[in-house]
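Two entries, shown back to back:
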Amino acid sequence: MRAGSIHHAELILLLLLFLVGALTTLSRRFQTPYPIVLVVGGLLLSFVPNLPQISLNPDIVFLVLLPPLLFAAAFNTSWHDFRFHLVSVLLLAFGLVGFTVLGVAVASEYLLPASIDWRLGLVLGAVVCSTDAIAATSIAARVGLPRAIVDILEGESLVNDASALLALEFAAGLVVSGQEPGFGEGLVRLLTLVGGGLVVGFIAAWLIHRLQLRLTDPPIEITLSLMAPYVSYLLAESIHVSGPLATVVCGLYLGHKSSEVFSTQARLENAAVWNTLDFLLNGVVFILIGLQLPFILHGIRGISHRELLFDAAILTAVVIALRMLWMYPGARLAYFIRTRLLKQSYRPPNARAVFVLGWTGMRGVLALAAAISLPRTLDNGSPFPQREVIIFLTFCVILVTLVVQGLTLPSLIRKLGLSEVDPLETVEREARKRMLRGALDYLESLDSAARPDEAVWLDVLHHYKDRYAMVEGHHPKDGEDPTPSQWTQMSDLNSRVRAAERAALVKMRYEDRVSDHVLRKLERELDLLDTRFVPRG
């Protein structure tokens, strides 16, 4: 029986991977964000008869899928940009989360069925308050959404996973025990979860970073990178603090330090491994969301589908409205704190940009997993009230926000005139100039004794002068290829010059003159050049 179960699981996994590839190809053909196509595709497939039924296990989501997804998002987030927008991110990740939980709880007593009181409303609000930035950022990359909005979206989705699960713990505990926790008790628990998650994440990241500094074998370096999210998450959960927050801190720290620890080969291979893993996990997650409808409907009794859909429409409208209501005063408050208290140079909030930021509040798999993870019974042994209805309402909020908001976002951005050339291009051009200037300074500083063959030195010098001229907008003259006898010397000199470029680039990052996004792109180009000149055995 076990062998049959294993083979059945293998077939299901192969089916999911095939669907991810096929539906993603379809999304690119129709130029539609792949999360939307995957969710809709999974929903349509759920009605196909005789198709294997795949239920979403919340333990799999929280313990297997969530840690690497959070880690990958944090690792690729620029610490420079995250820190700059930290006030805006925290107001969304904690302020908006609390506002949504309370707003849904109040609305539940007046707009939803009488069976959902304010306590269940708190649970429902905690379930649907977390956002998923994958769909929004995939659209942003195609239509030119301002970089500041993208940075805030990414930061919000990283932190509000932890705050949403924290809110759910309080709300579900209130229903299960039937007792209201005191303010002091709740505050202590909040500080313990958040503070403990931050400390555990930093300690795990520091230890992993110290170990990475001693490794030079790319497969081992990558293996340690794959272990990092689970080490931080499970360590935090084992002492009952926030695992998601610990994983985010670990990812941010290691991503910021990646230029110091990875060898060239490991950096290239690690990026390829994580890009593939992140794509596959996200793809599987969005398909699983669509496949859950039959399981959700199966558990609901005594309520018509029409009534359920009407309640779902009301809840979705409330969730969207609450986010929009928060955005404008929240943006003004963030501007006040950043400019008056923190003395940041920050432009006043643009009403159109704030509206788009509010419209990108799409929900994802964490909300559905949180709903499914609700306990089935209370402390007194009675069933958890309206558990299946809460799961269905959550599913509808996810579906509508992903599909409706996701499909309308590109046209909304264009109509509001927010499409722009990526501002990172200007920063990138300046970084290229400083890198090339560093290389030229190194070449010109070599005395005659340190120089290789004069022809080799002149060839490399002219090459970098030509590249510098191209960055400046001039067209260099064509040069001659090096002779075979000069190749070894040229390879050695190029390697040292690229080290000078890399040093100039890293120095800019530590001076906060360039973001991690630009650093990684330019660093990858240098890494690829390094691999081009590696001697072949």
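entry 2 starts here
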Amino acid sequence: MKNPNLESLLQQAIARAVELCFGSAVDAASVAISHTPKEYRGQFTAVVFPFVRLSRKSPEETGRLLGEQLLGEQFRAELPFLSGFNTVKGFLNLELSDSWWLDVLASALSNPDYGCGVATGQVIVLEYCGPNTNKPLHLGHVRNMLLGWSTAELLAAAGHEVHKVNIYNDRGIAICKSMAAYLRVGQEQTPASTGIKGDHFVGSFYVAFNRIASEECQPWLDQGMERREAEKQTPIYAQAHDLLLRWEADDAEVRALWSRMNGWVYEGFNKTYQALGVDFERDYLESDTYLLGKTLVEEGVKIGVFKRYEDGSVRADLTAEGLDEKLLLRSDGSSMYITQDLGTAELRFADFHMDRSVYVVGSEQDYHFKVLEVLLRRLGRRYAAGIFHLSYGMVDLPSGKMKSREGTTVDADDLVAQMVQQAREKTLALGKIQDFDAEEAEALFRTLGLGALKYFILKVDPRKRILFNPEESIELQGNTGPFIQYTYARIQSMLRKADAAAPENEGWADSRVASAEAKGQQDVASWQAPLPPLARPLEDPELAVLALIQRYPAVIQEAAAHYSPAEVANFAYELAKTFNQFYDKLSVLHAPDASDRHLRLAISAVTAATLRNALRILGIAVPERM
């Protein structure tokens, strides 16, 4: 029995049993099914309290009657895998047969893509990152990128067609501020001439602009003017504003400088993307989409869903939708952020004809995306209904843990470097890699450091704020990435020992090696020899691991429905923890007989495969040894 919709099947059977036992029909979807707590026998639990009013009996008696009905002749063909039941107060715990669990194991072993859903035909465009081209990526971008990339992989694993895209906010006054400072103090330097990474190089001029503006605005501050207004009086701001006007007028000289500096930034960003292991199918530029956005606004004016005011500005009254009046074009005709988002949405639909558009953007933009959906609906765009804002919380750090070059934000490159360094120090202190050469050791440090960073961030529900503690994230114990990576490596070590020791007549080692070579992976042990029959019941630690393996496909679907890689991360931790308990309680390599050894090696192999597949969705690599 390998039905992935087991919970649904049990719901339907219990609903029919209620009608047979008590003469009243109930909706199968209302039958509450959960996984049985570890302290009780069984794998699935049904809540029977709602049926007491129908049975007119105690909860225990109601559960007993339903259990007997489900095990009776009428359900035998439908539920051949049901082997027993027990009742605890108002809960009916259902026990599944060992043969069913061995089928689950065999199915998982034979399928390297176990857990992945079938193709749904749904096309999803997922936007993440979205940086400005005037400063380096920081810790906030790191959460965005890791969450965005992982969510895309999760949706793909659930069976959807997913396209990962980026949007660059590459125009506007902030960009021109860096350009003005470069013209003022850059002295024709380049990233190559200074040895500074491109995005950091350009970002230094954004910092320089603020420093110069602070110096130049002092006379206005002395007169009591507020700082923001005082800075607009400065020569450096006037220069930036002039660059903006000339850019809008397509001035060749200004456009050349803009293109050159943005090119440096893109080169730097790409290095950070590569270091974090994230990628994009397509980049969109605000400079390419804001004019299309203006066209859409004019279309809205023409059809009467937006209004042009006497000063020339265009606004949308959204109060009927519980929102405010939204400015779409300023009186001078210049666009807003929402304007370019309208254009980008239109261009993406032309590119992908998506069913859903997922925007991975911080929670401070919740209102913005409500407005975007309403505006597109007013314009009659059918893709408006598919907009989903994957809103996430901020990332905080314990004070004094890390500081960026500017001293105000945590730089993404600094963060990656520090995580790798902490992994290096922690691993060397443990003293277990003496046989690694320098290249292997550095690869391990990077795998552990990035695994710690990604897991710590992704294990938290996206909507919650994170207090990121680098030292805690790198620990080998507890709910951390390195703990799961270590569990995987531990299994791999055991499987290598099993291969080396396996007798030729067992037929495991040769077939496992052949399978590994064919699939390009070492831990999906699709052995030619079938699992041998057991002369004993499955033991509780074996069942505990198999129960989690059986749940994995449902975890993928549920996590994808919730846009939550955190659910996959915490499943991986639970599986790693449960496997370690199995390993500590039961002998594997020195099992009592060959059938026990075969079974436990199979459980170990499929655990490793499932951990690797789950971590792959999170963008976390697994070490073969550590």
